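We modelled each protein-ligand pair independently. The example shown here corresponds to the copper (II) ion entry; the chain sequence is given first, followed by the ligand as SMILES.
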Amino acid sequence: MNKTRSKTMFSIISISVILGSLFFVLPVISEAQKEEKTFVTHSGRVVTTSGEILDPLYTSTTLEFDPMEFLRDFNYGRVSELPDGTILREYTIIAEDDGIMEVSPGVFYNVWTFNGTVPGPTIRATEGDLVRIKFINNGEKEHTMHFHGIHEAHMDGVFEPVGPGGGKFVYEFRAGPVGVHPYHCHIMPLEEHIVHGLYGVYIVDPKEGRAPADEMVMVLNSLDTDFDTENNFYAANTIPFYYQHHPIQISTGDLIRVYVVNMVEFDPINNFHLHGNLYRYNPTGTDTDSFYTDMITLSQTERGIMEFSYDYPGKYLFHAHKVEFSEKGWVGLFLVDGEPLAETIGSINYGN
Ligand SMILES: [Cu+2]
């Protein structure tokens, strides 16, 4: 879809270049070309141009990403049942490493992607399902998929590099254990393959299911846009400050369940602080035990499941309490609507 639009853009630009060059050849046609034309770019910008100035950054590999769509998007695969009753879930994952994404206004970053986004799709299965991942490497470098979880050695995505230009591998394993796990490319140098974006989330649900909730995925990640092995931006779901400018809408009393995974490279720790509330936190999501806090600290690939609900409507921050990270983009807002569910205390009008 995005590529189709990008290709359309590319065609428009190509036609504009051809018409623009005719300016020098055919003066009569060039008069017509001076009329300004308005069109909408792939990112939704409305551009007015005479065709003489072209933006070279819009290429056929320019990618878009919508963190609000990613937040609640779960990929359950193509589901079928095997003769022994096992549920088979099949996924196709395509790696590419030539994408360009505008990660912040005017900041373009070379993203390496699973299925065209950073993070890749959130893969979801139930404990005991047979997970089959058809992996295709359409990149220019070797890549793999390494899943955290339990599987056979040759399904670990470490010693079986998948070659560029269409190399294939089928990963197959039983979903387990119950919890939230990361997956990522495991080709060296690993930091480089991860910080460019080759990672995603793999959720394993218990057979009995989970309590109904407003579920969301937050991958805490970072961007090294000047390639000095220090991060320039931090985020929940790739785009710095996104959920601050586009608050996540929730309602009082609703159970909110956040699958949080830390994929920040270079910095040894990250953390997650929630305002006006505390949450139950279950590390790795593998256990029924949880603790009650408003702050967790996560090292690389540490993850877990947070559950909470708000009693009072209003606007509440969530962010890294490592302030450098929040000031460089890892900050967001929950916008809670609905009626208060607990007694509210009247405001004090100081000075009146
Ligand atoms: Cu890779």
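The two ends are 59 Å apart (CA to CA).
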